[in-house]
Amino acid sequence: MKKRFGLWAWTSCILLVCLLASLYYNFKGLPYKKAQDQSYSAMINQSFGNGLKNALTETDLVIESLRDRASDASVMQRLGILSANLKTVETAFISMDPAFAAQGSSTYLMYNVMTDYYNFVQQDVAEEINNHTLDKDEGRNKIIRAMEMMREDLTELHRQFPEDEVIMWRPARMEAEWRETVRNIVLRKDQLDLYERLKIKYGFDANDNAS
After folding, report:
1. pLDDT tens across 80-120, in order?
2. Which has the closest alpha carbon to 98: 117, 111, 116?
3. 183: how many CB neighbours lie within 10 A of its CB?
4. High-pLDDT (> 70) share of the chain, %
5. How many whole angstroms from its chain centre is CA 20?
6. Chain Cα centroid distance, residue 95
7. What separation in angstroms does the CA of 180 have from each of 120, 152, 174?
8. pLDDT value at 34 more than 90
9. Which of 141, 124, 51 is nearest to 93 (CA)?
């Protein structure tokens, strides 16, 4: 009788522990996971969704201001807004890195590429304007072409990574496809020093397979 009671007691204890664990998960774990999912979705939207879309819009406005022969100050103001949008995308990718790291991946290339575009706008293009490149048609057209090429890049990234699909991808796939897309962009362009810098920085080679 005592033996049966002891077995029943142990069984009851195990069931009670399982019940308490289940309750804890539902009342603490699930809300935490839900908050994590919502945060991840927000970062996807901030980067692949509105982030890249806004960067494209601002790039168009910079090009428009250049074609309309706006003043140096007006163009610089537009470049500042574009830079802020690129920085927003970069920050979102950095914020996603812990979630990627938990699954053995990284957003390193993703946020570094956005940093490179940001630096290109803030340093290369801004320096040209500060050197009064816009005073002559040749200089103005050169900057317009540079911005058009950057817009082509951002358009391809936005097209290859639609927000509603990317949210379902595993980090490893996102990381690999981003690398392949950026590699293809860099290797087929050589009109700007930007692409040569990217090729060297990330070790892209036409004879290597994207990894």
Report:
1. 999 999 999 999 999 999 999 999 999 999 999 999 999 99
2. 111
3. 22
4. 79
5. 40
6. 10
7. 21, 16, 10
8. no
9. 51
What CA–CA distance (Å, rounded) separates 168 from 11? 41
Tens digit of each residue's pLDDT (9 = 90 or more) over 111-151: 999 999 999 999 999 999 988 888 888 989 999 999 999 99
| pLDDT exceeds 60 at position 210 | no
Q: Model confidence at 176, in pLDDT bands (50, 70, 90)?
A: very high
Give the HSE-up count for residue 133: Cα atoms under 13 Å, Cβ half-sphere.
Answer: 18
Residue with tokens 């801004």: 126
> Can you tell me the distance from the alpha carbon of 171 to that of 198, in angstroms, rounded to the nearest whole number?
22
Query: Are 177 and 210 a contacting pair, CB within 8 Å?
Result: no
Question: Are residues 44 and 82 in contact, defined by beta-carbon separation less than 8 angstroms?
Answer: no
Write down the H helix ranges in 102-206.
Answer: 108-119, 126-130, 137-160, 163-166, 171-187, 193-202
The Cα 40–Cα 146 span in angstroms is 33
